[in-house]
Amino acid sequence: MGGPKKATMTLDRSFRIGDIDDRIYGAFIEHLGRAIYGGIYEPDHESADADGFRTDVLGLVKELDVPVVRYPGGNFVSGYNWEDGIGPREERPRRLELAWRSIETNQFGTDEFMDWVNKVGTEAMMAVNLGSRGIDGARNMVEYCNHPGGTYWSDLRKQHGYAEPHDIKLWCLGNEMDGPWQIGHKTAVEYGRIALEAAKVMKMVDPSLELVVCGSSNARMPTFPEWEATVLDHTYDMVDYISLHTYFNNKANDTANFLAQSVGMDAFIDTVIGVCDYIKAKKRSQKVVNLSFDEWNVWYHSHEATAKEESWQIAPPILEDVYTFEDALVVGCMLISLLKRADRVKIACIAQLVNVIAPIMTRTGGGVWRQTIFYPYLHMSLYGRGYALTPVIDSPVYDSQDFSDVPYLEAIAVANDETEELTVFAVNRDLENPLNLECRLGNFEGYQVIEHITLTHTDVRAVNTEENPNNVAPKRNGNAKLNGLILAADLAPLSWNVIRLGKAGK
After folding, report:
1. What is the chain's Cα-based Rg?
2. Nearest to 174 by CA among 166, 186, 158, 160
C-alpha cells in the first residue's frame, strides 16, 4: 500500500446548486422476472399480508424511505394492455409477455400496485403504453385512475372496490421508444407526435398531471442527442421532464475504469440539459423542462444466466445481478452525479427495487436480504434531503481506459436548514491509498460531527447472500473531526463515506 494522498474541499452555504426534490431517490418496479411475483407480491409466503404483499420486503422498502416508484415498465409497458390487470383476478387473461419472453398472469395490476404504494408510503410514477397502444388507452387509464366518478372507467374502478380516485399525478409517456428492441419502436418524429397527442388527452382528463417524455435509452445511441431535440421540439409545451437511462458494467474487470464511469454520467446529464435549454431558447419559452433519470444502476452480472433461461416461464429468475462491493462504490458515485445537478435532475429511479438488478433480494418462499448497493442508496435517501452544495474540490487525479483526469475524490454535500444538518458524501476511488480529506466550511459555525459512516471491504468482489447478509455492511468507525470550520477525515482506499454534521446542542 502506498502513502496517503491529500484532497481539499471547500463548502459554503451560499454555494447552492439547488433544492433536492425528494423524488431523486425513487425506484422502479417492472413486470419482469421476480420483481413483482416472488418479490413484492407472494401470497403464499409466510410473511404475506392479506393482500399478498411480502411484509419482509415492505419493511426494507420502508427502511429506504423510497419517495416514488415507477411502474409497470420498462420494456414491459410497450406491449401491456393495462385493462388486463384490473377486475376480478379469476377473470384476468394470461398473456405472452414479449419484452422478456415470459408468461404474464396479470394477478398483479394497477389497483394492486396502488394498494402496495399506499402501504409503503410512497407515490406512483405510472407509465402508459405508446408502443403497441396509443392515446385512447392512455386517456382511459387516466380516467380510471384519477376521475372521481360518473363515467365508464371511473365507475368501473368503483366497482372494483376503489371508491376514491388513485390520484396519480406523475406519468411516463412510454418507455425507451428510441430503441429498436422496443415493441412499437418509433422514429423521433413518430414518437414526438404520439407523445404530444397522448399528453394533450391525458391533461384534458386531468390538467394537474406531470408528464415525462422519453429521452434516449443511453448516451451511446446513434440518435443521441438529436432524438431529444426532435422529441422536445414536438412536446416541449406539454411535458415537464425528459427521461435519461444508463447502466454501467465492469465486463473488462478494470476497477479503476469502472469507478470512473460516473464521469460519463455527468457529461450525459449536462448534454441533455443543454438540449432542453436549446429548445427553450428556440421556442422563446419561459418554461423549464427538467430531467427524470428514471433508470440507472450497475447491470451486467446476470447476462449469461438470463440468456440460459427458457422462454415462456412465469416469473423466471432473470436479470438477478448479485452485486459486489465495487458495484456499491459505483452506485455511490452515480448518486453523487445526480445531486451535482439537483437544480435540473428532479426525479430519478434506481432500476430496479427487488430481485431484478436490485438493492433488495429475496428467495421465493424464503428470506430477504440487502445487497451491497442497498447502503449508498439508503444513506443518500435518509441524509440527502435538503439542498445540494457545490463542492470546490482539489484532488489528485488518474487516467483510466475511458477517461482522463479522474479525481480520486468524488464528493457532494447536502445541507438541511430545517434539521440544521450538513452531510458530506464521498468516495475514494484510489485502489491502494487512503485519502486525507480537508474540508473547509463556510457559514456553518457551531456545527459538530454526528458520525462518520464508512463502507469498505478488502475484496472488491465481496457480495451479500442470504447465508451471509452482512458480509458488506456499513460501520460507524470513521475518524472525521471538526476543528473550528475545518473538517478533517481519512478516507480509506476504495471506500464510501458519509460524514454527518449537525448544529451543536441539537
Report:
1. 23
2. 186
126 forms beta bridges with: 71, 171
By annotation, the residues acting in catalysis are: 176, 295
Which of 12, 8, 20 minimizes the C-alpha distance to 388?
20
CB atoms within 10 A of CB 189: 12
What is the residue-level pLDDT of the chain in tens, covering all 506 positions?
Answer: 567 899 999 999 999 999 999 999 999 999 999 999 999 999 999 999 999 999 999 999 999 999 999 999 999 999 999 999 999 999 999 999 999 999 999 999 999 999 999 999 999 999 999 999 999 999 999 999 999 999 999 999 999 999 999 999 999 999 999 999 999 999 999 999 999 999 999 999 999 999 999 999 999 999 999 999 999 999 999 999 999 999 999 999 999 999 999 999 999 999 999 999 999 999 999 999 999 999 999 999 999 999 999 999 999 999 999 999 999 999 999 999 999 999 999 999 999 999 999 999 999 999 999 999 999 999 999 999 999 999 999 999 999 999 999 999 999 999 999 999 999 999 999 999 999 999 999 999 999 999 999 999 999 999 999 999 999 999 999 999 999 999 999 999 999 999 999 998 76
Q: Which of 153, 37, 27, 130 is nearest to 75 (CA)?
A: 130
List domains and CATH numbers for the chain: 5-13+389-503 (2.60.40.1180), 21-383 (3.20.20.80)
The DSSP H or E segment spanning 398 is strand 397-398
Identify any residues that bridge with 337 across adjacent strands, giving them in sequence order: none
Show the beta-strand stretches assigned E in 119-195: 123-128, 170-173
Q: Residue 424, SS3?
A: strand
* Chain centroid offset of residue 202 CA: 25
Residue written as grid cell 438541511: 416
8 A C-beta contact, residue 237 and residue 203: no
Q: In this structure, what DSSP letter does residue 241 have?
A: E
Q: How many CB atoms lie within 10 A of CB 469?
A: 15
